[in-house]
Amino acid sequence: MFGPIASLSQLNRADGSASYKCPATGYSILGAVNAPIELPARRDALKPEEATVEVFVKPGTTTAGVGERYVEGILRSVLGKIVLGREKGFPRRGVVITLAIVGGENVERGDSYLTILPALLHAALLAMISASVPLSMTFSATLLGVTKSGDIVRDPSPTAAKAAVSLHVFAFSSKNHLLLNESEGRFEFDTWELVRERALSICQGVISSDGDVTMDEGTTSASLNGFIRETVEDQVYSDYAYKLDSI
Amino acid sequence: MASTTTPSNPTPPSLSLPPSQFARLQPHAYLLAHLSPPPASNQPSIRANGRATSQFRVTSANAGSLTHTNGSAVVRIGDTAAVCGVRAEILHTKDIASWSVLQASAEQKFDKSNETGVPESQDEEDKGHIQDLNLLVPNLSLSTGCAPGFTPGAPPSALAQSLSHQILSLLHTSRLVKADDLRIWYQPPNLDSEEFHNAGEGMEVDTEESGGPEREIKAFWVLYIDVMIISLAGNPFDAAWASVLAALRDTKLPKAWWDADNETILCSDDVADAQKLSLRGLPVSSSFCSFESDVAAGWRAVVIPDAEEQKQKKGAQQRWILADPDGYEEGLSQERVSVVVDKENGKTVIVKMEKHGGWTVDSDDLRHLVDVSAQRWDEMKRILDQC
Amino acid sequence: MSAPLVLLPSDEVPQDHLPTNSSNPLRLGPGLRILSQPSSKGTNHVLTATQAGLLTTDAKRNTVSILSFPNRRYIPTVNDFVIAQIHHSSVDFFHCMVTPHTAHALLGQLSFEGASKKTRPMLKQGELVYARVQSVGVGAGAEVELTCVNPATGKADGGLGPLTGGMVFDVSTGMAARLIRASSSSAENTDAIEGLVVLSELGKKLESLGGFEIAVGRNGKVWVDCSNAAESAVKVTIAIGRCLQETDQQNLHPHDQKKLVTKILRDMKLVS
């Protein structure tokens, strides 16, 4: 199976941007972040001491509808919690995240938005990192489906997701907190716990007995957190090649 | 001069505030003081609204309140009230552009499932028809004045839109409505028995007959489910979903058939002919929020502990999970949990579970919340059965 | 020197990467913060990253900071040099744009060298000033104040004041910082000039045309003027701007920068 593909700072005009493509589900997202900026039209939403996080999701071929509003709300609450909105220059300003769905199947009206949620989360996180928005932690997210026979499938395709008995999205912070869970379908709590364990191992890699994530190259590259780290490192190395060459 | 006129030792101004003002000025401290009373005071930990942490507000439901709808309900949870009306309209298959394509693919599937004899195939087809043809159209509006900040003439707020989507997607994933209830069939007359299409029961009987021409779907019922939140005091989703559930349980569809002579759908005006929808299960939604003791200042200055460390420090309680939060509590917490459960033969099945906006709730808490939701299910079932 | 270390938000700075010079206190650059960790044996402090980037330390000045991505938005910091554009003027202030989509920065009508009620410069909308950030205020909604004089001397040190003629080019904030560091360092080694040879190369090649003047604002703006070049002034200005922007966008190596300069100058028929 191919892992996801991501790159940072692709757009020149935005303060930060990232593209993220998940070959398994077929979704491809382009995210841009502008921060901190004034939000004159959103005076009502502004908190006096913190930055306001605004998320816009733009579907590739149609206009945004109720489903996008819903997923924007989820993203806002997850990302708003990890942005350090009180750092210098951020209070009373906005962190505006725009996520365009540039590839993959359309999410029709009333369809589940869970299939695309991990890709949106990753694109938003990488774009915020690229814009140097101060964050308290990073995270990674994964989509899991439970089939009729009870198997847990990672990143099911849109058709497989429709056939699944239940669908689960999990996001874990870099410190193993459960940041987000969205589950739908019919399932029991024990099934959910199994799926959670699986999701944790996908996000964080294999956890050794003493509770630490092993930092060998082999295991971190397989985990999604490791993938996020590698993507950022690659970009830093290429941006500061002039500095690193001389060392 | 000025110094002599002001008394050098003024009487200290009264620093006590009535509770209602303290609640407005220091909402976080106010709720925190209720939840963690000083140990000396011997008071129980209780929410500012007088409820225990896992206690829901008083809920009442009334079905059939609106007369011009096919089904309706008013549900009130505390000060949050939702009205739901279900209106059924007929959608002719000839008006569906992609009908012939859909039908062909459906038939293929049907053939396959006949061969294998998988009982779930009916469910699958249901989901397909309802979802592909948009047979359920929920819309939620937050009426003007339901809470401060909802001004007349404003476009649907992001909250209203996202609630509409949540209702729609829950209707789809829970497969609450059976597509078979929404189909209007036509059985072409069997030339051998002229009489039959006048007979009321004819359709059901004839499906078993193999000799006659195949019956076909001529139209669908489309259910427009309009929810209006007339008063919003926190937790709109539970109220809205309960009202949808109660309204659908109340919904009666008139008997309809295809009249071949007039080439149109006719409905019976006899109330006795109207049929109730047969719903699958009774998914009940329960929402929670997590109130953190140090929401504003603490976590920015201290290291956020790893998930494992956090678990070990549970002794010093730093957060409370509040069931059915009211508007005041919702404003003070970011982390939300919503669990939708159903019970099949006494066994709890989770239909939907979501949590986001923080990191204090993990699997142990969720397991507990599922149990709380299961208790809430019993309560809601009683309320909905009575209405 | 130890291997380059890339940190992500919430990563702790390892103790062995901190400079050990203890004569003056350790200074933290942007992207790092100190957190206290309450533990059984009192409180100990850890340094954590809030932004992703390359950890850099300066043993001489005892600083530690994170170099994050060059495309980031400029956040005004006291004493930074910026190129601001006048948006409008009021009785006491010029309202200037420093970064797009942010509140205007204020530049006092009299904060110019030798300015008085009579002699103050009458700047119109769209004109440019090279200014220093005087204060950023504290708390939410604070206004950024600019000045065109050094408050200590009352002089316009370092070319502060209105910029007349020339042209402004947008570069990334990272590139602007590099240009400033490169120009302030007199050392000859490649480390100090931040891998930038584009300016010195341009200087050598354009000497015959009268040279050029350049001002770099931390907010990602570079002002270029070469009015000495007479009839080819516009061409030279654009050539310089293109060299800087392409070096920035394509993140060119020093030898590629030299090639780029030669190519662009030949394309624009400035140097044969």
From TrEMBL, chain A:
GO terms for biological process: nuclear mRNA surveillance; poly(A)-dependent snoRNA 3'-end processing; rRNA catabolic process; rRNA processing; U4 snRNA 3'-end processing. It is found in: Nucleus. Its main location: nucleus. Keywords: Exosome, Nucleus, rRNA processing. InterPro entries: ExoRNase_PH_dom2_sf, PNPase/RNase_PH_dom_sf, Ribosomal_Su5_D2-typ_SF, RNase_PH. One of its GO terms (molecular function) is RNA binding. GO terms for cellular component: cytoplasmic exosome (RNase complex); nuclear exosome (RNase complex); nucleolus. The keyword Transmembrane helix does not apply. This is Uncharacterized protein.
UniProtKB/TrEMBL annotation, chain B:
Transmembrane segments: none annotated. Pfam families: RNase_PH. One of its GO terms (molecular function) is mRNA 3'-UTR AU-rich region binding. Its main location: cytoplasm. Residues 1-20 are annotated as: Disordered. Keywords: Cytoplasm, Exosome, Nucleus, RNA-binding, rRNA processing. Residues 55-254 form the Exoribonuclease phosphorolytic domain. Gene3D superfamilies: GHMP Kinase, N-terminal domain. GO terms for biological process: exonucleolytic trimming to generate mature 3'-end of 5.8S rRNA from tricistronic rRNA transcript (SSU-rRNA, 5.8S rRNA, LSU-rRNA); nuclear mRNA surveillance; nuclear polyadenylation-dependent rRNA catabolic process; rRNA catabolic process; TRAMP-dependent tRNA surveillance pathway; U1 snRNA 3'-end processing; U4 snRNA 3'-end processing; U5 snRNA 3'-end processing. It comes from the Eukaryota. One of its GO terms (cellular component) is cytoplasmic exosome (RNase complex). InterPro entries: ExoRNase_PH_dom1 (IPR001247), ExoRNase_PH_dom2_sf (IPR036345), Exosome_comp_Rrp42_subfam (IPR050590), PNPase/RNase_PH_dom_sf (IPR027408), Ribosomal_Su5_D2-typ_SF (IPR020568). It is found in: Cytoplasm; Nucleus, Nucleolus. Belongs to the RNase PH family. This is Ribosomal RNA-processing protein 43. It comes from Penicillium coprophilum.
UniProtKB/TrEMBL annotation, chain C:
Keywords: Exosome, RNA-binding. Residues 166-229 form the K Homology domain. Gene3D superfamilies: K Homology domain, type 1, Nucleic acid-binding proteins. GO terms for cellular component: cytoplasmic exosome (RNase complex); nuclear exosome (RNase complex). It comes from the Eukaryota. Pfam families: KH_6 (PF15985), Rrp40_N (PF18311), RRP40_S1 (PF21262). One of its GO terms (molecular function) is RNA binding. Residues 26-72 form the Exosome complex exonuclease Rrp40 N-terminal domain. It is found in: Nucleus. One of its GO terms (biological process) is exonucleolytic trimming to generate mature 3'-end of 5.8S rRNA from tricistronic rRNA transcript (SSU-rRNA, 5.8S rRNA, LSU-rRNA). This is K Homology domain-containing protein.
